């Protein structure tokens, strides 16, 4: 976590009174979301907003990830790993049912994993399952994975939203009517407004959770102050935190995320396919100015695609210091001394829209004319992520340990490098933690040297919620709003 975040939020948290005075419904919780999910099937989309609604609430996996990033039992009560690391045997919980009343057993687990890794799979993280050679179900409560190679991240990846268990009977309709095994069942989705889920077995605690869609940062502030929303686990208006300092109704909770915020570059499109041009862009960027203007100074600058709180992080922010003169020289070397024009497509998050204005001005200072094109999230997913129809864009990649995306030939960056692929292939089969750490360092340096993207900052997690509420996550090791432990006190 950056020094600015610790200093500012440390003051604000100290100024916040522990108990609020406003009324609340002890059986209902309203959570604010900045982005509406494009659909509600975490096995069929990359949008973080999907998992923020359904992960661990509606859907469960064989294992789950907790707030500290640890792998815990879920639908599998335990598991065994062969000495050679090539066989994983999961022992399932008995008596589990899907929300439609059908039984969950090893056949459903096999179906879910085979579906995720199938040739025609639409799973956004299909690579998570690449090491699996075969899935068998010896009996109703046992599922066995045979691997073609050791995979040091397999258990963690099986705890992601991409690996949740689904039923053959309802898998095709989970996009709009999700049916899982979690403690909450899907109730309704009012497009553009909210998603509601209700507890399967109601009790004395929170029985209904409403996720209210509020993309505008000013509206987020207003909704909290008016008590229309109980919590914003990912608050988008850091410049407005002072409005909650000293207000007895609220608690401000600083945390970390896995969100590497980048100025993504289409490496397949001239002249951006020239490393000198990409390095010029990197030198044109002033990370601190972007943090100050887009995030009120809250966040940690990064120089590669890796989270600073991770043990394997290498600080590469000094590789491309803000140096407009060097940027102009590199453009001249590339035959672009007179500059060139690009489009900068910006999705809805405030960090992207605000940061994009600053980035455009910084690029203009070195002769690169960036035309800003605001796009909605669904448009961004289709145009940029899927069809690669873009020059530059700004987005936070919130999947944990996702540096491996740079090894994918079909990824939207358009980056292809055999040495990087070899590094990642070695990481995939390396179990020794020290060796994995060293290899992650090599991977970080490689994509930084190639200036694949301009790396900006690690997105902080800023939670603002009612003081009477507890049990929400402080940090986000994965994309989630796990409500299981949330209580009114």
Number-wise, the strands total 19
In what range is the share of β-strand residues? Answer: 15-25%
Mean pLDDT: 93
* Cα-to-Cα separation, first versus last residue: 29 Å
Q: In the CATH classification, which architecture of the largest domain applies?
A: Roll
Number of structural units classed as domains: 3
Q: Supply Rg.
A: 23 Å
Text of the CATH class of the largest domain = Alpha Beta
Question: Which regions have little confidence, pLDDT < 50, spanning 5+ residues?
Answer: 1-21
Largest sheet: 7 strands, mixed
How much helicity do the residues have? Answer: 25-40%
Task: Return the structural class.
Answer: alpha+beta
Name of the CATH homologous superfamily of the largest domain:
Dipeptide-binding Protein, Domain 3
Q: Can you tell me the overall shape?
A: globular
**Number of H/I helices:** 12
CATH fold call of the largest domain? Dipeptide-binding Protein, domain 3
Tell me what the structure shows:
- There is one protein chain.
- The chain has 489 residues and is α+β, with helices and mostly antiparallel strands.
- The chain has three domains: 3-35 and 180-256 and 462-488, Periplasmic binding protein-like II (D-Maltodextrin-Binding Protein, domain 2, 3-Layer(aba) Sandwich); 59-172, Alpha-Beta Complex (Dipeptide-binding Protein, domain 1); 259-460, Dipeptide-binding Protein, domain 3 (Roll), CATH 3.10.105.10.
- Helix content is 26%, strand content 23%.
- The chain has helices at residues 3-15, 48-54, 106-117, 154-158, 217-225, 275-284, 287-295, 324-333, 350-364, 377-386, 418-428, 433-449; strands at 28-33, 63-65, 71-73, 76-81, 87-92, 132-139, 142-147, 184-190, 194-199, 208-213, 231-232, 250-265, 300-301, 340-346, 368-374, 392-397, 454-466, 469-470, 487-488.
- The strands form five sheets. Strands 11, 12, 13, 14, 15, 16 and 17 form a seven-stranded mixed beta sheet that branches. Strands 1-10-9-8 form a four-stranded mixed beta sheet, covered by helices on one side. It has a four-stranded antiparallel beta sheet with strand order 4-5-7-6, covered by helices on one side.
- Strand 8 (184-190) and strand 9 (194-199) form a beta hairpin.
- The longest helix is centred in the C-terminal third of the chain and has 17 residues, at 433-449.
- The radius of gyration is 23 Å and the shape is globular.
- The two termini are 29 Å apart.
- Residues 1-21 have low confidence and may be disordered.
